[in-house]
């Protein structure tokens, strides 16, 4: 039996999921890379950098994939 979408259900492509995983990993990996190559970060610095990366990635994902993830009838 073939899988069919319900009317109004969004289409999530593989590229959407890969981009979302990369955005989530970036919030952890980028501050750790900074600590390895530059120097230690305080908890507040780690928290704020993670928040800035997460918000920036969310806005970027929204603008990049908004047209391809629209609800279709």
From TrEMBL:
Keywords: Membrane, Transmembrane, Transmembrane helix
Transmembrane segments: 47-65
Keyword Transmembrane helix attributed: yes
Protein known as: Uncharacterized protein
């Amino acid at each position: 039996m073939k899988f069919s979408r319900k009317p109004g259900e969004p289409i999530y492509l593989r590229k959407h999921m890969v981009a979302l995983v990369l955005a989530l990993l970036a919030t952890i990996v980028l501050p750790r890379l900074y600590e390895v190559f530059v120097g230690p970060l305080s908890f507040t610095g780690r928290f704020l950098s993670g928040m800035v990366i997460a918000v920036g990635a969310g806005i970027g994902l929204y603008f990049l994939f908004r047209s391809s993830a629209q609800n279709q009838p």
